[in-house]
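Sequence of Methyltransferase domain-containing protein (Nostoc favosum CHAB5714).
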Amino acid sequence: MQQVFPGEVFANTADFDTGIRQLLPRYDEMLEVITRCVPSTSRRILELGCGTGELSLKILNRFPDAQVIALDYSPRMLQFAQNKITAAGYQQHWTGTQADFGDWADNPEKFDIGSEFDACVSSLAIHHLQDEMKLKLFGRIAASLTQDGCFWNADPTLPESPALAEVYKVAREEWSLQQGISLTEIRAKRGTSTTQGYSSQDQLASLDAHLQMLSKARFKTVAVPWKYYGLAVFGGWL
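Predicted 3D structure, token representation.
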């Protein structure tokens, strides 16, 4: 299997957009929830781990006057996202930067991305960090937001018990069967994930642990606007 960075998932970048929709139930719905939770007044939006640019595109479709500053450590993902954003006509509203957001959390002075963001978003990326780094990242996000700024993250969460782990697994498999999807075929297209910078294979935390971290990081209001078995959209406002 080809070696890939955590989060790249597939050996071939072009397989990502189709493959992730086959691996994860309700992927588009999950991202739409984030775009709805971002206030319409947002002008500067930071995206951490932009991947192929799907969330960026959904945000710009909703807020075409916004500026999205997107970080990702994968050059191939950034190029794919850049091409997609350009094809949609938003190239003046999107800046992709090759960067490890774990490094940004640890060493913000190294990065010239500014602060005073109205919103920060992320999807399927932060779960690759250890919990200590998740907390540090949430603190860095809080420090980079405007006074009423918000942060929304879509990620898999650690099941609260072995019984629920089984429930989540069965629900996902039944969903795939209903869609006529062979998980074996999809998984065959995956690469082998290796540690890259601050990220490694899945390092899931429970939803409750995430919410506690957000509260510790100075988010006054924390919320879970969407949850589907083991997937959740969570975040809050300063």
